[in-house]
Amino acid sequence: MAHSSAANLGGAGSVSSAILAEQFYTPDDIAKMWKIDVSTARRAFQDEPGVLKLGRTNRRDGKRDYVTLRIPESILLRVYQEKSK
Q1: Residue-range domain boundaries for the chain
Q2: What is the Cα–Cα distance from 21 to 37, expressed in whole angstroms?
Q3: What is the pLDDT of residue 48?
């Protein structure tokens, strides 16, 4: 039976309910807001901790990895502050 509490989503209580209530953005959303190319937005967030990565990575069949990013608003704001210094 699946539990719906936020503490069970990331294992060992690693996901807070606050992050689940946040607005999530796509790289395309961010590219439009910041007036940059979508590939630049994707690179800026692909290795950030806390970014939701959906899809297959490290494929063994030689095909390209397809990963969808969803960036929580708190991560967006943190990266903006770091990059605007």
Answers
A1: 19-83
A2: 28
A3: 95
pLDDT in the model for residue 21: 83
pLDDT of amino acid 1: 41
DSSP string covering 10-64, please? Answer: SSTT-S-HHHHHS-EE-HHHHHHHHT--HHHHHHHHTT-TT-EEEEE-S-SSSPP
> Counting beta carbons within 10 angstroms of the beta carbon of residue 24, is it exposed (0 to 12), middle (13 to 18) or buried (19 or more)?
middle
- Return the number of other C-beta atoms located less than 10 Å from residue 73's C-beta: 13
Q: Are 49 and 25 in contact (CB under 8 A)?
A: no
Q: Are the C-beta atoms of residues 35 and 81 closer than 8 Å to each other?
A: no
Size of the chain, expressed as the number of residues it contains: 85
**Averaged pLDDT in 10-residue chunks for the chain of 85 residues:** 42 60 95 97 95 84 86 95 91
